[in-house]
Design goal:
Radius of gyration: 30 Å
Distance between the termini: 71 Å
Number of helices: 21
Helix content: over 70%
Largest sheet: none
Length: 569
Amino acid sequence: MTQTQVVADAQLLSILDQDRPTPPWLERIDRWALRAGDAVNPILVKETRQALKSRQFVATFSLLLLAALGWTVVGSLLMMPQIYFLPSGPTMLVGYYLVLAVPMLLVIPLAAYRSLEAEIDDGTLELLSITSLSPRQIVIGKLASAALQMMLYFVALFPCVAYAYTLRGIDLPTVLLVMGLLLLSGLTLTIIALFFAPLATGRTGQITSLLALLSILVVAEWAIGFLALGLILQGNPMSGEETAYVVFASIVFCLTASSIFLAAAAAQLAPESENRTTAIRIAVLVHQTALIGVMAYSLSLGPDVAWPTTFLIGSHLLVMWVVVGAMLSAEASTITARMRRSLPSTFLGRLFLTWLTPGPATGLVFAVVNIVVLMGTLHWLADRVTNIQGTSRIRTLTVPIQDALPLLAAYLAFALVGVRALVAGLRARNPVRVSIGLAAMAVVLLLMAIVPYSIGLHLNEYRTYGYSLAQVTNWAWTIGLALNRNLPDEAFYLVLALGAIAFIGHLVFVGRTVLPQKLATPRRVLEERDRLAGVIRHDAEQPDPLGLGTDSDRTQQANTDDRRASTTS
């Protein structure tokens, strides 16, 4: 067969293939592959290329391989000849863990922090903000790049871990627990690092945030290493059911807490005209709901597990709402037209979803309602724990705490109203950042305790005096007496009344700002959405006798101007 005949046959086959219809299942696969390709984050591709070519990754990966090889040789020689007849797996696995923990818990989070910080310093983030990429996609792209590097480190050390397992002395569930702990901790610390990157502006602020991040990473490295080495050398002291519960609770806690930090990091990158707070409020609400489920699950494991779980998670959620509530109460009261267009329009939607919209008024209501729900749930869980048989020792601990929970809710509601008023007074003269709410909360709590105590001390000629109803705003003294079960009933109900009056008074005085009204979406915005969605309106293109361009051209230009204005602000 000549070359001419081969070319002719190939052309004939191509013509036949063009006439042959494509099978439907193959078209579906092709469409799915196209959507998957479009869904791949361009930030992930860019970051992966830069990371794999960077000196930091090359140096870290090379040192990891050299350290693993060196410990394999040195550790095996040090345990000769006992390695042939004695279990030596734990000792070898300790060395491999230390080799892998340094890049996972220290190097990769710092690299992710520096990558996002460099985007901000170099001005490339402003270029990304005018593209179709959202701030959340940018943050997730950075996280995905870090996760890919972690996978490479795990793959590189997998043969070494398998070698340690074959030396006996350690079981497979323990190995999986240690590796899972390392992976989950590395991802969580990376998300925290991404949250710290845009947190501060200016050289001084960046140095402060870097030092804070380094402190967190070092403490986490030590704490996680202490736990991992205990699992390797001493084994797992928990039963199978308790281990499953701890693993489930750890995964739920890390995933939901990480979603809060991701939403906060994306909010810091978004322009001021965008809705920055709804995603954070949803993440916080999901975090609390998930942890309440974890506490309810702990009741099935007995009081010895349910009591410390309820106490630790309840304390964490209480501190979280002090911080989150203070920052929500310090938000700017200005709601842009773009935000108001996305407000719910139905009665049920406004009743349940309005509290997710930006603004200090809705933020205060959102925080107080969740605090009341939390305190009621903790009261119910504590009651369930005390009703379990054989828990007289736990009953003496939980009953005073149950009495203090309503007081905590009332005091926090009163303090949040004070923060709202204080920040509003400061914002009337100067621009105020949301982080000022934390300082305002500290000031309000300090004044609530110090002012009545100082007045009483002065009236009693600076001598020791007893508790009276004049000290009801002194939350430290009042809660202390409640924990000791010495608080008068009049003071208890007066504190509840003060919290309720402050909250209801806030609703009355702020008026319609608590329930912002929805704005109708302009016609040009609807046309632009339809154009982007591929829908063509028949009346979209109107005659243009003055030569000003068609409606779509003017809409596109207006949206471009809006994006540029948002980026500049």
